[in-house]
Amino acid sequence: MEQQFKHDVFLSFANEDIEFVTPIKEKLKNKGIIVDLDGLIKEVEARDQRDSSRKASPLMPAGDAVILDNSDQDEARTLQQVLQAVHGVV
Known about the structure:
single chain
């Protein structure tokens, strides 16, 4: 049976996240996994552009979505902000 959720969390990736992603890239490199970060970012941006501009079911936040800007926050603060938003809606 498929599980139904009351809330969706829509996450987006911004170029500012490079500072967050770069250490992960280095950890993967140390394990022998090479990541083309610039290529990956271009692929994600192209995918998001395609998905958000398609006619059928475009990728976009729902009309009643709560938009959270976590540009200057760490992971713990971001999670706290998401949980506060969800509990505020419930």
